[in-house]
Amino acid sequence: MSKPEPIAGENSLIVVPDILSGSDSFLRAKILIVAQERSTVQLLERILQRVRIQNFRSTTDSPAALSLFREFWPDLVLIDWMMADVNGRPMVEQLRAMIPDGAFVPIVVLLWDATSEARQLALASGANELISKPIDACEVVLRIANMARVRLAYLRLEEQKRALQGTVLQRTLDLNRALEALRASEESVAQSERLSAVGTMVSGIAHDFNNALTLIMGSGEILLTDAEHEHLTKENTIQMLKDILTAARGAAELVSDLRKFSKAGDTADAQQPVDLNSLVKRAIALSKTKWDSQAFGEGSQIRVAVDLQEIPVIQGNAVRLRDAITNLIFNAVDAMPNGGTLTLRTRTKDQVILVEVADTGIGMTEEVRRSCFDPFFTTKGQKGTGLGLAMVYGIVRHHSGTIDIATEPGKGTTFILKLPIPPAA
Q1: Residue 110 in 3-state DSSP?
Q2: In the Cβ-directed half-sphere of 54, how many Cα atoms lie within 13 Å?
Q3: Residue boundaries of the structural domains of the chain
Q4: How far is 257 from 238, CA to CA, in rounded Å?
Q5: Are 306 and 344 in contact (CB under 8 A)?
Q6: What is the fold, at CATH topology level, of the domain defined by 264-420?
Q7: Which long-range contacts (CB under 8 A, 24 or more apart) does 150-154 make?
Q8: Which pTM value belongs to this model?
Q9: Topology at the third CATH level for domain 18-163
Q10: 334-374: per-residue pLDDT in tens?
């Protein structure tokens, strides 16, 4: 058995850093000693024991050092650069390769050759600190303390990182639960809104049908009473029958509007190339009775201006899109009871096709503008069902488009349909 190597300053006081004297964590640090000579191992063990470090493992067998490192997983490695059966460089490199990326286990190399070339080679192979031989106890303790301080800081950071990851994970779980609760709440609100919309729709339908039935029943009862008392005359009979037919036609129009409204988004079964300029022209022709004959008969004159620029063909439902434009024309004519100018434009801007229907009529208040697309909302009293603009909105949305409204009370309104330009084939 080799004689233990004497410690430089064997009987002198070893300077103990504060981290050694006041940190239980440091005193429990695991240290692996790998040296060529047993005497060197004993020397280092004695130094560690003098400063009350007991948690260490030692070996003089370089192949066993790798297995011991894996088993012991130390907080610091003390390794002799000159091993009996292997050069220190590959040993240090193998130890360094066993440390996962991002982890930090300091390696302190004991070096007899203190030349700059030897020191550079040791550091380049992965050493974090160097101790020159012959070994000085105070230097060993101070260098171990410096590396241990960094190792302990790394471990604290890892602990904080894990705690932070746990907090983030918990917050993420809490957030997901909150989002699920929010979605459930939104679904509940949406369901309530749908029920409210259905209630509004039923109320509106009932109101309009009740008006028609009241007129029909009232006129029918009068005719029946006159017939029973033989008071029927051509004059009162014709007028009563006209009233009955007017009410019946109004109810039929309501049913027609409801059917159109229910099919406003039904475009999947009728996709075809659509020339919007042709649709605008067709809508103008179909609505001529409204903006020409009817308006003239009511003592007003509607002038029609058309500005159709070259625009791409889109895929869609031509019938539904024509209905939407026609409804906007009807709406514009109704907004000009004293006459005015109806303008229809088409153009492209920012990868969308714009179809504009403008009037110079009464315009809208902000409240009316916000509500005009709501089903059964109308400012026309008994003359309107409140389904026309709602139908237009549904048709445009189901063509992946949007509608903007530019309006000012007394100065008219412009509805701007924005339909996406299809990608080039």
Answers
A1: strand
A2: 2
A3: 18-163, 264-420
A4: 28
A5: yes
A6: Heat Shock Protein 90 (3.30.565)
A7: 150/104, 150/106, 151/29, 151/75, 151/76, 151/104, 151/105, 151/106, 152/19, 152/23, 152/25, 152/26, 152/29, 152/75, 154/104
A8: 0.44
A9: Rossmann fold (3.40.50)
A10: 899 888 999 999 999 988 999 999 999 999 888 888 878 77
